[in-house]
Amino acid sequence: MADLEAVLADVSYLMAMEKSRSQPAARASKKIILPDPRYTQGQYSVRNIPRPSD
Known about the structure:
It comes from Toxocara canis. 48% of the residues lie in helices and 0% in strands. The chain contains two helices and no strands. The longest helix has 21 residues, at 2-22.
């Protein structure tokens, strides 16, 4: 019985792999947005925010 369950698990895995391979556009539509490389971590710190003159 364990062999049958292992075969079913393998078949399910292979079917999922084939399904994901047949739909490349679905995976390509997930776009990762990276932060702008022109800004560094130091430019976001509180010290660099100009203070209004009193």
